[in-house]
Specification:
With about 150 residues, the protein is mostly helical. The chain is built from six helices and no strands. It is about 95% helix and about 0% strand. The longest helix is centred in the N-terminal third of the chain and has 34 residues. The model has no long low-confidence stretch (mean pLDDT about 85).
């Protein structure tokens, strides 16, 4: 259980760093958009970028709270360990290729944010791909949870 504790502590520190980067990104984009000329589409792109960063922050805060709760309570730590090592969950995640999917979603998400500063057409294309991939992942997860 001590090895799992150290894993959770590492995750918490990484998530804290990601949270800090998201805050820095929000501040920098706010400063950039004030200087740039504002149109309806640039406001929408900025809103998407800030919303994505806020969404990441909220998810990170939820996981940090969950992991801190598990670190403080031995029963919660055991429940979390069992849940993360559940064979059914692992099978479902392997079946839908979760690791590759998350990697692709992350890369496309970063590319979408960067494209928002460069070209609107590329931004909207990547945003559509990101939304489609997320919908496919959710659909596969629901399908395989009900199937197995």
């Amino acid at each position: 259980m001590d090895s799992f504790r150290s894993i959770l502590k590492k995750r918490i520190s990484i998530m804290g760093a990601v949270n800090g980067l998201a805050i820095i990104f929000i501040v920098l984009t706010a400063m950039y958009t004030r200087k740039a000329s504002s149109t309806d589409t640039s406001d929408m792109i900025h809103g998407f970028q800030v919303g994505l960063a806020l969404g990441i922050e909220i998810i990170m805060i939820m996981f940090i709270a969950k992991y801190n709760k598990a670190l403080k309570d031995e029963n919660e730590l055991k429940k979390l360990h069992i849940k993360e090592n559940d064979e059914r969950e692992r099978f479902i995640n392997d079946k839908i290729g979760v690791v590759g999917f998350y990697l692709a979603l992350g890369i496309i998400g970063v590319a979408t944010v960067i494209a928002g500063f460069i070209n609107q057409i590329i931004f909207f294309t990547l945003a559509g791909v990101l939304i489609f991939m997320t919908a496919v992942k959710v659909g596969l997860k629901v399908y395989y949870k009900n199937k197995f």
